[in-house]
Amino acid sequence: MKQLVVEKNNPIPRLWETPIPKPGPGEILIRNHYSVISSGTELATIENSNKTVAEKFQNKSNLEKGLNLLKTDGFGAVWNAVFPKNILPIKLGYSSAGEVVQLGQGVHKFHVGDKVVSNGSHAEYVTVNENLCSRIPEGVDIKEASFTVLGSIALHGLRLSETTLGSKIVVIGLGIVGQLVYRLAKAQGSEVIGIDPDSERVKVDDNFFTSIEEADVSNVDAVIITAATNSNEPIEIATKISRNKSKIVVIGDIKLNISRNDFYYKELELVVSKSYGPGRYDKQYEVLGKDYPIEYVRWTENRNFEAFLKLLKQTSIHLLDLVNLEISFNDAEKIYTNFDSEKKPLSIVLRYDLESKAKLEFNSIKNLEPRDGKVNLGILGAGNFAATTILPVLKELKKECKILGIASNSGLSSENLAKNFKINNKYSTEDAILNSEEIDAIFILTPHNNHSELVIKALNKGKAVYVEKPIALTLKSLTEIEETIYQVENPKIYMGFNRRFALASQFIKEQLIKNPANSMTFRFNVPKLEKDHWTNIKEIGGGRVVGEAIHAIDLACYFFDSLPQSISASAPIDKRGNEVLDNQVFLNINFQNGAHASIQYFSDSNPQLAKERIEIHGSSSSFIIEDFQKVRYLIDNQDRSKVFNSGKGHKESIKIFLDYVSNKSENPFTWIEVKSVSSAGIIAQNFINSGKQHTV
């Protein structure tokens, strides 16, 4: 992605190519649509980054810091502070608006797809804590909303003035923040006058003047200074025009050489406004996401964001006429060369390219040439699922693939399958299959407890992997797989989540493009297994949620086009034996886009019921699937049915995998999707009856 930065000793900002950041706990990843250049603040940042050491030491505060550092830590510490190694460029920008594309752990207030404002920098993607962004109300122009952080600076300064309906306010400095203060003060019903020496800016409004001599500045209740200058003139003017006991609020960067007598005889009050409001620069608030109680701190920086957006929603203020220029973000470097410190543009909006969409998660190397010939396969695992489901499909697809080896813990079972399916078992052991250079892809169909280990081994050997669910039984194992993905060249992982590829699912997915769903219920009616069945042994099978019900989590992700955000799991308790009936499980999942899925996994219901029944609802439409064969769909006034005879999508899924291995198609699964669905299943299995919604 592109990020606008200013480098040390380079006065012209540059667009750097950087990786897309990942949201940490409590953070969201936003794809910017617009951001606003605040020319005064950004020029000051650029100028400061290009100051010499001598210029910096002319600042009394910096000199004192240097002397203190010399006393406490010695000359070496001062040298490192003055001439630091690995100087990072400085990000520019702090008022933007865009769309949420990914959520960090513990985020509950936002969903993927939400349009939000934030204090994110000029970059295609930014990560921001929950407390530093707010959802844009329906009907508010996203370009206009991109001014929100600047508007909150103005709003906080206005609040500090403690003015109200009928108050008389003078605003000194009519840059973008000054203009916003003026409009906010007008919106609250105050009488407002603007002062700025720039003759072009004062032409905008009849209440704008180049000097106080031209304006009626009698009985001024408050003066708000938004100018940025090395001159002491703004504070001198403010003390001169203020009435007794009035208030002076400083938002801009000005000198504060004040006259004690001026303040003493008028009993003036001076307040320096700190950015967007309470919470600014407080790590507990901005990093850890802890809010201030509203009864003690009414207007935090986040609540200021919300208040400003509400004013836009109510059309109490308008901002787009303040935009001098709108340019593509790709041309951002050029605009800074046109800035003149004496004559700065009021505001410039950067527009981001939304046509191209970068992948948020590592997937695979692109543009690989499609290969001819059959895909050579190795099969790990020779149990019932391999015999009754996977091998019959591979036999049907024999024109596209060839099985070179099949191995299992029990050599007998693998040799038996090899004979039954007429496989010339060239490699009959696990190591032989993994080490064979002529085998292109591995099917992992073993008991669940060794899936993660085999995935890692296969990836390290350069094999494409088709792994039956679950890919792992622990979150730690998931992390180990992820680390392997980023270490090997062109890793290919494909999950056995076949339900999404069933023709019934594909049919419904097409309908959901026009009629998006927001809720789903999935009921399994499965045969009861003995307690000592390997699936029920946690150390081997992991449990039936992670081993089978996880299919429903993936299908919900597919239908909603979203990832799980939080999940809870509960099960009835057999009071006679005082044990949880973990074959009777209820899952509730909240998704990042606000959708919800309820999954019921029953092994004690009537066998005449459909084994899998799914209901999908939303946009005044409803869809009902039974065993992926019968589909009833109700759209508007239509109530229709459709029958499919192709099964649960195993053949379709494997065909896509073979095309993926042959570079004829892309992987339909991203790693973030596999990881999120797998994490949800593991969490649900581990925390049945915990009574909590757990973040995925």
Structural account:
- Helix content is 31%, strand content 24%.
- The strands form 6 sheets. A 9-stranded mixed β-sheet has the order 31-30-29-28-22-27-26-23-32, covered by helices on one side.
- Helix 6 crosses helix 7.
List the helices and strands and how they pair.
Elements: E1 2-6, E2 14-17, E3 27-37, H1 39-49, H2 53-57, H3 60-73, H4 75-82, E4 90-91, E5 96-103, E6 115-118, E7 125-129, E8 133-135, H5 142-145, H6 148-160, E9 168-172, H7 176-187, E10 191-195, E11 208-209, E12 220-225, H8 233-241, E13 242-250, H9 260-266, E14 269-272, H10 283-286, H11 301-313, E15 325-328, H12 332-337, E16 348-351, E17 375-380, H13 384-396, E18 401-407, H14 411-420, H15 430-435, E19 441-444, H16 451-460, E20 464-467, H17 475-485, E21 493-495, H18 503-514, E22 519-525, H19 544-560, E23 564-570, E24 573-574, E25 579-580, E26 585-591, E27 596-602, E28 612-618, E29 621-626, E30 630-635, E31 638-643, H20 650-661, H21 671-686, E32 694-695
Parallel strand pairs: 9-10, 9-12, 10-11, 12-13, 13-14, 15-16, 17-18, 17-19, 19-20, 20-21, 22-27
Antiparallel strand pairs: 1-2, 1-4, 3-5, 3-7, 3-16, 5-6, 6-8, 22-28, 23-26, 23-32, 24-25, 26-27, 28-29, 29-30, 30-31
Helix pairs in contact: 3-4, 6-7, 6-11, 16-17, 19-21
Short précis:
The protein is α/β, with parallel strands linked by helices and 696 residues long. It contains 21 helices and 32 strands. Helix 3 crosses helix 4 (75-82) and helix 6 crosses helix 7 (176-187).
Q: What fraction, in percent, of the residue positions are helical?
A: 25-40%
CATH fold node name of the largest domain: Dihydrodipicolinate Reductase, domain 2
The residue ranges in which pLDDT falls below 50 over 5 or more consecutive positions are: none
**CATH arch. level architecture of the largest domain:** 2-Layer Sandwich
Question: Tell me about the biggest sheet?
Answer: 9 strands, mixed
State which percent range the strand residues make up: 15-25%
Instruction: Enumerate the strands of the largest sheet in spatial order, edge to edge or round the barrel.
Output: 31-30-29-28-22-27-26-23-32
- Report the structural category: alpha/beta
- Mean pLDDT over all positions: 88
Total beta-strand segments: 32
How many structural domains?
4
Radius of gyration: 32 Å
The end-to-end span amounts to 26 Å
Give the count of helical stretches: 21
> Which overall shape is indicated by the principal axes computed on the Cα atoms?
elongated
CATH class of the largest domain: Alpha Beta
Q: Please, what is the CATH homologous superfamily of the largest domain?
A: Dihydrodipicolinate Reductase, domain 2
